[in-house]
Amino acid sequence: MELLISTGLILVLIFMGMSVPFCFLSGSLFYAFLSGASTGGYVSTAFNAHTHGVLAIPLFMIAGTLIEKSGIAKTLIDLGELMLRRFKGGMGATIPVVSAFFGALSGSGTATVTTMGTMLTPRLEELGWDRRYLSAFIAAAGPLGYMIPPNMNAIIYTTVSSASVAALFLATVIPGIIWLALYLIINRLTYKQWYKVPESVEKQTVQSSLNDPALMEPVKKTSSLSIVIDSIPAFLMPVIIMGGIYSGIFSATEAGAVGCLYALIVGIAYYKKIKLRDVFKTFLNTGNSLGSILIMFPMTLMFSRILVVNNVPAMLTEFITGFSTNRLVILLIIDIVLIFAGCFLDVGVLLLVFTPLLLPTASLIGLTQVQLGVMMFVAVGVGTITPPMAMNLFIAGKICDVELKDMLKPLVPFLLFAALPMMFLVTYFPELSLWLPRLVLGAIN
Amino acid sequence: MSRTKEIFERLEKRLYQVVSNLLGIAMIALTGIILVQVFARYVLNVSIGGFEELPLYLMIISVWLAAPFVARRDQHVKIDLLNLVIKNDRVNKFIEAVLRLITTVALSSFFVLCVKFVATSRQYGDVTPGLQIPFWMIQSVLVFSTFMMSFYYILLTIKSFKEAIKWNS
Amino acid sequence: SGGDSGDGDNGDGGDDGKVYEWKMGTIYNDPVSRPDFNAFGESMQTFIDLVNERSEGRIVITPFYNSVLGASGELYDQMRRGELEVFYGQPMSNIDPRFGVFNLPYIMSDYDQVLELVANPDGELYKLGQELVADNGGHLVSSGASLFRGFFNTKKRVATVDDMEGLKVRTYEDPIVHQFWAGISNAAPMPYSEVYTGLQTNAVDGLEFAATSVVSSKFYEVGKFYSDINWQWTWGANIIISQEKWDELPDDLKQIVSDAAWEAMEVQYELESANTSKAIDELKNNGVEVYNLTDEERATWIDYARSLDETFAEEIGEETVQRVLDAIASLE
Ligand code: NA
Ligand code: NA
Questions:
Q1: What are the transmembrane regions (chain A) (predicted)?
Q2: Are strands C186-189 and C225-234 parallel, antiparallel or unpaired?
């Protein structure tokens, strides 16, 4: 009862707009106040909340920024435009494609949204695309940033489960590619209402042999060949990072640091874009944003421990299996719980609070920790674009200067026909997640 | 009155700059140590000994050091939903004030718990496995952090109550 | 504190009506979800079942397996602070360096010695453990036979210390474990969850591990060599109750808890020794070469271990080490 009231309090406070980490802190303290339970373990839990795996977050955040500053991200965009200039649906398709490219270098969905928002929006808007569409699409494509490995969320997931990072990285590849394909199809079908030929381009088009102005390639000053050559260092990066991890040279967490070093070297020596002043600023800004991202961990873990101590995971298992003993129905319930929770909760909360809650149910119905992980990651991706708590929408909206309510209409098709179906695909077709890691690693523990 | 306020603001700004720079240095050190560790292990076939644990503690310290400065601007992750539902600015200001008050109470209670926790840690005298750093020293950052956060939220609470009342009249 | 009579009257006075609701935390696996090769988990569950049953509801212990309440050091810390009533596991040496004395390499020669000195209410080393734990906020109710650790790897048969050269060995944050392996191999700490794929990707070549754990973690799927170097007996099966929680218990319940704790340790020993031979068979069935060291080969390991004695004694404290050495000498 006390637990229910505290949980309710947390949700109400979140809704009313109180800072989320402190909602959880208040909820934990309020629980102790109501039930007379000891608060003595809270600080210990908070202090121990940051484990070695969490180090991946600052490292991948820094790497993401350095990739943008180094000129690697720009090369990826040039290349994406080059590849897609004859693709129906026009330059809008660069959003998911470049997000996936970027994802091969970065482990973070947030960094992907930030970089795409900053770098792609001005270019596409110039070509006649509606900001509202751009911001919604960029937000929706954010999850590709981690579905294509490296995957920061996978590293966090291993801190609360016993799945291995190497298997998890491979598990999201095929779902990530399907997700990308769905976005391309949706873009192809819906882009026309969000695209208007700018006047400057219209004049040229009249004389052009092309009928569809959205196919117009952007004004190119550099040749295709130089774009391809310039992108070589960018494509070397995933080779080095993934190669390093799978040949056992460094761990997934360490890969973040290697990514930083690589982006720095390429940015200074090859693209000659990075200034030393920017480097310090990048590290400093990351240090600052840690204060808002990682403070979530201790605050939510305190409440998560309260749930565990009160046997909520077992109760949840009982509750879910009480509905039905049919495995397919249980999976559906898990999906619904995750999607619903994703509306209100932040990425970190979802991974850290719900994984321990769902593990007993998963083990009961023979759901492997790797597959549960992929389900969690897709749920996290869905959660980042479902209001009210929708991190990717917030970031994309802020960068593109679009209000949240204006993003909803263009967002709906991406959510209904790509993100949510992905959730059910990875739930009901385990081979989508398990086939590749089994192929590469031989067996999954 | 405004003179002390000015001095205080300057002091606070200075502290922010110092901590900010510390954070930048901590992040560079963290990344650097991990790179050295990879290099030492893979190329030199040696381990860097106790230093392996340092990045983790640098991160923990950074997180708790940075949190108050996010609090200062009330920029911790939150949902802006109420503004869409309730159109009355005065009501919204009042709700904001109450939420900040709750945050202040929660943070200052947590501050007290942190002080107690670090005090017992000092008695126990545990050290980190690698570099033998006393744990209570690292844990002290929680005391600093929660103190500063409580302090900033007191200011924020007062500010929004003042604004709410101003609208009232 | 009273409670001198127990005539069944559940009145207000005394603590005869009081129900002690305890949490018991461990890093070991839940025997329900991991029934095989899990002597630690089984013995913890035995303890809980016995106490809950014999106390007739006056003590209710709820288990928390799989580190859900925190890692080993954190669990011990919670126990010491009275936030966790019971801890099952190994007191780590960063809490008190003297705890390391039980984990010195090649200090225990076999289970007989362990049963005599440690897994025994009158054992000299159980008493030492009790003193050390008492200095660190806990009451050591019972100590078990725990297990010996061999060496498992993907590369080659390991017989002597020299065979270790160039092998990448997984260790963890424990000074003795790390220093021992760093002296003869390329040792690096790695989280346990990464070991399986680490062996697959050659991030590590091997690790020191008990045969039963190699089987239960299915490492035999990715590596082919096991040697019974038995370099370390670990002080891994201990039931420790927070001192303040122990003190508030009436004498009859103390007796029930203590009896149950020792019986649980008997279960741990019986299961572990039965499991070890079963595990060896299982390893062989799965194509793992199980190598039993000759006396000469074992001597190279023991010599190496003795060369570290001074370093370890300095870290642990001469006096504590001497007590252990004396206790072992008194057996012979
Ligand atoms: Na990625
Ligand atoms: Na959401």
A1: 54-77, 97-121, 133-149, 155-186, 225-249, 255-271, 283-308, 328-358, 370-391, 411-429
A2: unpaired
